[in-house]
Amino acid sequence: MLYKLNLEHILFLDIETVPQKQHFSDLDETSQTLWEQKSQYQRKDEITAEDFYERAGIWAEFGKIICISVGYFSMKGEQRNFRVTSFHGEEIHILRQFKQLLKDHFSQTKHLLCAHNGKEFDFPYIARRMVINGLNLPYKLDLFGKKPWEVPHLDTMELWKFGDFKHYTSLKLLAHVLGIPSPKEDMDGSMVKDVFYEENDLDRVITYCELDVVTTAQVFLRMRNEDLLSDEEIKKV
């Protein structure tokens, strides 16, 4: 089935998230209590809720989106381009822009969204943050009443599982084993919070996010046994 998909109908994406507040002490008392309850099963006994708060960005109830990067293929005859762009700023602004992109260019039945671990993280996270921010869900994220084969989502991690539900593979590992050249990243996901809050360097986060979008597209191409994108084919817009 992968070979039959039109690459121009797929929107590749990645999100970066951080805790809603920089410090646990910045939360109101109710939020602190709820975070303590939410995180108690993930924390070891010796780790306090405050110490564990650096991971709060993983949960949509306690985190927020600071960047959504997207990429899409553009074909003109034999010429293949992969265009990458990012939405950043205030979260409500990010979500509105992303929603408008879906409405204007990726709203038809033929269109699909693709992310690495997207079904477990990116897609539901975006949907939850839209609801929290008072936005109606776009069609591509509103899964209510849809049958499994009607869900317009692709997930490169799920594709790599081949039905093995317990098998988690990071994007970095998958790219490595598939022989995809590693981009020159100067950070990883665990550093996003500090780079955003401590260093105030959103541009660095955006670059990291965009590199993951490109890598996801490269993984998808390898799964179709197609040539990888060259640097010349990748265009930032």
C-alpha Rg (nearest Å)? 18 Å
Order of strands across the biggest sheet? 5-4-1-2-3-6
Helices and strands, in order, run as EHHEEHEHEHHHHE
pLDDT < 50 runs, ≥5 residues: none
State the CATH class of the largest domain.
Alpha Beta
Mean pLDDT: 94
**Overall 3D form:** globular
Please name the CATH topology of the largest domain: Nucleotidyltransferase, domain 5
Number of strand segments:
6
Number of domains: 2
What are the defining features of this structure?
3'-5'_exonuclease_PolB-like, Nucleotidyltransferase, domain 5, alpha/beta, RNaseH_sf, 237 residues, 2 domains, globular, 35% helix, 19% strand, 6-stranded mixed β-sheet
Question: Can you describe what's shown?
Answer:
The protein has helices spanning 29-39, 49-52, 91-105, 122-132, 156-161, 171-177, 192-197, 202-223; strands at 10-19, 63-76, 79-88, 112-115, 153-155, 234-236. With 237 residues, the chain is of the alpha/beta class. It folds into 2 domains: 2-15 and 70-236, Nucleotidyltransferase, domain 5; 21-61, no CATH class. A 6-stranded mixed beta sheet has the order 5-4-1-2-3-6, with helices on both faces. β2 (63-76) and β3 form a beta hairpin.
